[in-house]
Amino acid sequence: MNKKDIAHFRRNLKAHNDALTINDMYSVYVMKESSDIYHEESVAFSLLEEEQKELYMENFKKVLGGQLDEKMFIMRFARDVEDSSQEILYDALGSDEREDWQDEMNRLVEKMFAERHYETDVVVTFIRGNYYRAGNKGHEVRDEAETDVMNAHSFIMCSVNKTQMPKSELLFDYIEKEFKYNMVVDPIINLKTPLSGFLFPIFTEGASDVNRVLYGAEKKFKIDDYFVEHVLNAQETMTAEDDKIVFEEVVNQVVGDKMNTSTLSKVYDEIFQVIDYHDEEEKEEPRLDYNDVEAVLKKSGIEDVSTEEVKNAFDTVINDTTVELKASNVVPKSSSKSIKIKTKVADVAIKPQDLKYVRQVKVDGKLCLMIEVEENTMIEGFEMIPEALFKND
Fold first, then answer.
1. pLDDT for the residue numbered 167
2. Whether residues 251 and 313 fall in one domain
3. Are residues 153 and 61 in the same domain?
4. pTM of the model
5. Residues 207 and 263 in one domain
6. In the chain, how many domains are there?
7. CA gap 59, 6 in Å, rounded
8. Measured between alpha carbons, how far is 120 from 102 in angstroms, rounded to an integer?
9. pLDDT tens for residues 113-135?
């Protein structure tokens, strides 16, 4: 499930949409002190008021918000797990009775709060529905409203939301012409910032994959380890930030922590080529193991790099020589000025492909940042005149 698949699913999360229908919704209210279920409610989604439907749809869109490997993570279920959540979700997908589906969701809720207490009361909401999408490229050109030519895929989504007490306010009563203290005791469910959530199964090229789940985190690069391991029973995964840190540390181990901009630019160019040459039809994004990192460094002009040296660097940094880093995670974003160069005098932001125009040089014994430009620079309405850098002896 790549970002296009996620965007397509998210775009279709609407209250009224033939391409994605919600059948059932089940919510539980859990107390913070005891982790006991205080209230539970099961309802057909179609019976909700329109305003409620819109609120819930926006909430579940938040679960799928952000970027892959930053706030959303595709995770494979762990094998040989007792009371496996994969089996629970799979059975729930196929259950015809709402009560059976509700029982399976309660098993997940029990796992959520078995060894954990939240700081506030929590509301856990599940929805179950059908997602319609063409199973091959031949159908992509059709109007997606034509569900008769689409494949139907059952899915379950979950959103975990905290509650908060409303603020006390002072009101003015126009009729009685007096100021009144407004005290509301009903907690507000925060649907704008889910604590966590998931989509099961994932969808790739119009096909369901029940061996993996899409997990949504509350904050960027902050995976809830308890939720992933004990609730979803999913395997550990690395964030985009983790991939980048590991790559940088491995390169530091191999070539040292000093590198000129020309070499760094070549390293990025080599990785961008790996990404560009990747077949978009492949399900998995390109990844780099220690052999790939060795090849990138050698093609970038770094000499005396051996396979054993890079392999040992992976073992030292992450204690795992089999790990594969997602290529798009280890380089700055090419679509924006993602490289930040900070100096005491000024900060500069450039795109990775423009790094080759930047040099750190010494002029008259002083360190200078030199940026190659194609035309005279304008500063405060003035066109700058080129200056000679070196003095004649």
1. 78
2. yes
3. yes
4. 0.82
5. no
6. 3
7. 15
8. 24
9. 998 889 899 999 999 999 988 76
Distant-in-sequence, close-in-space partners of 258: CB < 8 Å, separation ≥ 6 = none
Cα 126 from chain centroid?
Answer: 20
| Total length of the chain | 393
**Rounded average pLDDT over 36-43:** 91
Is the same domain home to 361 and 286?
no
Rounded Cα–Cα distance for residues 42 and 225 (Å): 29
Half-sphere exposure at residue 25, Cβ-oriented, CA atoms within 13 angstroms: 19
DSSP sequence for 300-364: TT--S--HHHHHHHHHHHHS-TT--EEHHHHS--TTTT-EEEE-SS-EEEE-GGGGGGEEEEEET
Say which residue the tokens 């709402």 belong to: 98
Task: Return the CA Rg of the chain.
Answer: 27
What is the C-alpha separation between 182 and 346, in angstroms, rounded?
Answer: 52
* Short-list 327, 218, 220, 212, CA closest to 276: 327
CA dist 121 and 117 (Å) reads 9
Do residues 14 and 27 both lie within one domain?
yes
Domain range for residue 12? 3-163+192-236
176 assigned to some structural domain: no
Q: What share of the chain is helix, strand, coil (3-state, %, to 5)?
A: 35, 30, 40
Q: Are 256 and 347 in the same domain?
A: no
Which tokens in the block code for residue 180? 């009144």
Question: Interhelix angle for 290-299 vs 240-255, to 10°?
Answer: 60
Cβ pair 287, 325 in contact under 8 A: yes
**Does residue 389 fall inside a structural domain?**
no
Domain co-membership, 222 together with 365: no
Neighbours of 185 (CB within 10 A): 6
